[in-house]
Design a protein that fits this description.
single chain, 4 helices, 157 residues, 2 domains, alpha+beta, two-stranded antiparallel ribbon, 12% strand
Length: 157
Amino acid sequence: MRIAVAILISSLAISAQADGIYKWVDDQGVVHFGSQPPEKGEVEVVKKPKSARFKQWQSEQQALQAEKDSDAEALEQNTTAAAPAANPEQKKADTGMSKAEQAVRAQRCRMAQSNLQELNTHARVREIGSDGKMRVLPEEERQARIQRAQQAIQINC
């Protein structure tokens, strides 16, 4: 009996270590901490989890940030582009912006292809729900995700 309790306690400690801690501020200015990041908004990672899901989320956040930066640069260049840019440094900035956009699209393309492959390979797809419990995707939801992945591939690849 003592061995079973010790195993249970150690497994709980291990699972607690695997979860990350996120910090964000909502629309009303209230600071929240949680093991799951919100869908939208700025998030600070207090403790990084060691899961592949976190690495995927982190790469998506970096891609979104790069896209925001490139959009801001494009807006700035459009406002200052009244005169033609004969400056070689300006041309380098233009190509750098397009490279950032290409990097974002390439990242999205890889993620969509990976998601589509997983969804097509496995008939029973399991994921961790917002409550922290494992659940199996219903077939309708799996098919909807397959369609979204195919659309993302068409847009980004």
